[in-house]
Amino acid sequence: MNKVYETVIGIEVHVELNTKTKMFCRCSADYFGKKPNTHTCPVCLGIPGALPYINEEAIKKCMRIGLALNCSVNEQSYFERKNYFYPDLAKGYQISQLVKPLNINGQLEVEDESGVTSMIRINRVHQEEDTGKLTHVGSETLIDFNRSGVPLVEIVTEPDFHSSAQVKDYAKKLQQIFRYLGVSNADMERGDMRLEANVSVRPVGQKELPPYRVELKNINSFRFMQAAIEYEIKRQIWVLERGETLTQETRGWNETKKETYLQRSKEEAHDYRYFPEPDLPELKIDTLQLRELLRKQLPELPAQKVKRFFDEYGLNKAQIAMMADSKEMAEFFEEAVKVGSKYKVESIKVANFIINKKVNIEDINPEQLIKDIVNQNTGMISDEKELEKVVKEVIDENSKAVEDFKAGKEVALQVIIGSVMKKTKGKAEIKKVKEILEGVLKS
Amino acid sequence: MKLSKDKVRHVAKLANLPLTSEEEEKYSEQLSKILDYTDQLSKADTEKVEPTYNVSGLTNIMAKDEVSESLPQEDATKNGTNIKDGFFVTKGVFNYE
């Protein structure tokens, strides 16, 4: 931490919603890996005269994100056209929200690397549409409009971050919230979720924001974003220390060289000429009624779950982080604890077993997990293969008893079982040994 | 209302239209005339009219999230002047270079 300079960061997150259809037409929004230009229609191709039609499900999902981030809902909300000339949108504008976004004034608590928490103010959570995908090949650019018009939600914070660790925590928490809410897969690599950081530094004690900011863009992992911010803080301090000034610019991250690089400098002031989208009726939201309805549908969110797991199960921070990582993991854990209580298996033991054995919750059900824990506790051999090995050894060593058994002497089986128990020092379950024995002998 | 050449240049740039200086002069006059024409609207008495951007007066008109058929690729790309492997092709544009 530099004592002379303080870092100021604001974050913009874009997240694609997992609705079935696009934002303003009913083309399928499931575009990933599909043949180019097979998910389009006059609306998302920007053909004159085509009229957009708002996707109700997207609006609900956008509002759920807003609620989860403690935003207020705007009672009146409408869409606007953001005009720009670029081939990723055929219309010549993106339908977005400027003056009246769906959600405003939220907040989310983040942690830095030493566990100190602070509140990040969220300026807005608004609804817009994604652009088409451009691929640059040689001197040409190829355009695929399958992604054009897919619902995109933008979440903008105030410049409240002061370290890269806070940013990483924020991004991870958002991703977790999107997944808990079931509104997006929020996969960074696939581009479901995209981060932009506006980074600048100022002398400690200065209240005003610095007269410039560097935008870090097109960075598709949490780790790279953190590294890029760290690098940028050092670079900016270095430039200021030399008595030079910093300017508004956009930079990317070069992972090989581990440094940021200039993408676009001295940006001209954008002239998007926003104006209300006349083709879309406005949204009037009965705030109280709707909030109540949506709140009822809201699942228990990560922060609440973490608190409850602490109160109810007495787990430590690391254990809770693992057990509440996803909704599925949390459900598995709680179910296992419930089963475990019948066998006097404590919740901490359940958590530790899952963590230490790297249990894959897709391969096992909570009942089996508890059985494994119980067997482990009593020192019983729970691995069937291991038991089978011992059984086979015993059979080889007791050919007489085996022959007797095959000749119809049921008691001979007891001799063999007795040998297995002796060999395993009593750590085998008799019922299981019998099952395996019968299986092997009859085959 | 005379539109300055600078304004014309700015508008042309936003629309990605390369203009010669003669064209700038010509469009400056033409665009100014268009603005004068539409300026008649400001003479209308709107004292008792609520401002609105949408003449339908409708609110909360939304569609269910149910997929309907998209255009086949051949139809979607039919009007393109340069199509390759189902993609629209344009002169190279590089966002940040």
TrEMBL record, chain B:
One Gene Ontology biological process: regulation of translational fidelity
Reaction(s) catalysed (UniProt annotation): L-glutamyl-tRNA(Gln) + L-glutamine + ATP + H2O = L-glutaminyl-tRNA(Gln) + L-glutamate + ADP + phosphate + H(+); L-aspartyl-tRNA(Asn) + L-glutamine + ATP + H2O = L-asparaginyl-tRNA(Asn) + L-glutamate + ADP + phosphate + 2 H(+)
Pfam families: GatC
GO molecular function: asparaginyl-tRNA synthase (glutamine-hydrolyzing) activity; ATP binding; glutaminyl-tRNA synthase (glutamine-hydrolyzing) activity
Enzyme category, top tier: ligase
InterPro entries: Asp/Glu-ADT_sf_sub_c, GatC
Record SUPFAM superfamilies: Glu-tRNAGln amidotransferase C subunit
Keyword Kinase: no
Catalytic activity, EC: 6.3.5.-
Keywords of this entry: ATP-binding, Ligase, Nucleotide-binding, Protein biosynthesis
Role summary: Allows the formation of correctly charged Asn-tRNA(Asn) or Gln-tRNA(Gln) through the transamidation of misacylated Asp-tRNA(Asn) or Glu-tRNA(Gln) in organisms which lack either or both of asparaginyl-tRNA or glutaminyl-tRNA synthetases. The reaction takes place in the presence of glutamine and ATP through an activated phospho-Asp-tRNA(Asn) or phospho-Glu-tRNA(Gln).
Subunit structure and binding partners: Heterotrimer of A, B and C subunits.
UniProt family annotation: Belongs to the GatC family.
PANTHER family: GLUTAMYL-TRNA(GLN) AMIDOTRANSFERASE SUBUNIT C, MITOCHONDRIAL
NCBIfam families in the cross-refs: gatC (TIGR00135)
Protein name, as recorded: Aspartyl/glutamyl-tRNA(Asn/Gln) amidotransferase subunit C
Phylogenetic classification of the source organism: Bacteria, Candidatus Daviesiibacteriota
